[in-house]
Amino acid sequence: MEDQLRVGLIGAGPWATTVHAPGIADHPGTRLTAVWARRRDAAAELAGRYGAEVADDPDQLIDQVDAVAVAVPPAVQADLALRAARAGKHLLLEKPLAGTVEDARRIAGTIADNDLASLVMLTLRFSPEVIDWLAELGKVGGWTGGSAQWLSGALLGGQYSTSQWRHDQGALFDVGPHAFDLLDAALGPITEVIAAHKADNDLWHLILSHENDVTSTATLSMRLPTRPTVVDFAVYGSHGHRALGGRQTSAQQAYTAMLDDFVAMVHSGVHTHACDAQRGLRLQTVLDQAIRKLP
Fold first, then answer.
1. What's the rounded Cα separation, in Å, for the pair 192 and 210?
2. 128-248 CATH
């Protein structure tokens, strides 16, 4: 118990209640200490499930924990993450980091300046099937292109359909970071968004340039009546075609694996990671380029 990280959770929406809170409460290395949300009744209900306290405001929560998990819209996260980082608290952050590149740069910079551990909710990267796929790609090499498809009806109905920031910013900001992160990890750093098109139904088509003359495409939507959600990744090159098989690891299982890394980072003092805030900043620049490429 003495070695457990005291974690405060900011937010009480669907992702906070189904992934963050139970994951933190059940992990042997963490303890859910406090919860704060804009709606106090929602925070109280969530905190009560796990014996956590309800904070009166974010600063009270930050003062009594070792680490802060943030589960709020990106524009809101920017201020809260900065406050926590300036107070020396380690951070579990949502993707994207912020609403703008400037705010994302401030978050990543403050975390680095204070030598803090951070991880961004790129949960796919903590799934064994994704880890194995990326390892195989790195071993074989010779990939010249790739593609990502993420097609969902999440904004047409279900627990996320009332999320205003997702309606406002759509698939690019919600599932885009996952797609760009995996394409970048599989094919090498994304250097430029060559072209971007957005249709009325939140259907995005993007062409991406990577280092070494590699290109990839991404097709994203959260407003297509697609069941189940289509999540396909593939690369191709001199050794043929390699597709990432269907997802086998749940978000909850991936979150537990992520907490394993987070706890190890805090205790070891090694605060860099492939999915840390610097990665979040890199992905934010890709989002920004995509928006700027719209006609």
1. 7
2. 3.30.360.10
